[in-house]
From TrEMBL:
GO terms of molecular function: electron transfer activity
Coiled coil spans: none
Taxonomic source organism: Thalictrum thalictroides (Rue-anemone)
Cellular component terms per the entry's GO annotation: chloroplast
A GO BP entry: response to high light intensity
Protein name per its UniProtKB record: Proton gradient regulation 5 protein
Listed PANTHER family: PROTEIN PROTON GRADIENT REGULATION 5, CHLOROPLASTIC
InterPro entries, per the entry: PGR5
Amino acid sequence: MATITATGFKGRLGSSFHGSWGTSILGEDHTMLVNSVATTWIPMAKSTRMTPIMKNINEGKGLFAPIVVITRDIVGKKRFNQLRGKAIALHSQVITEFCKSIGADAKQRQALIRLAKKNGERLGFLA
């Protein structure tokens, strides 16, 4: 039987444990566990770094997706992304002006911008 006592704390905290440790893993079970752990080695490469894959999940989905993809191929990715960024910024400004005119607060404005993004994804504008 093992006894553990915790002392030296402010207020003289005294706690004892009376019992045994690890009686459930003895005999054949213990030997089998040790052998299985000791013999399982996994070789590691020098660098196992995962790189994120940037892929558009909306590619080819939505009513306007084919037009968007064809335009991107004609104009080029860099120029297309610049134009898309400007269009999104203008649309956000329109939403902001609309919210100002009806007296909507910033939280409602953000909700409208999120809704516009969801609708754009569904329609294929973000393909």
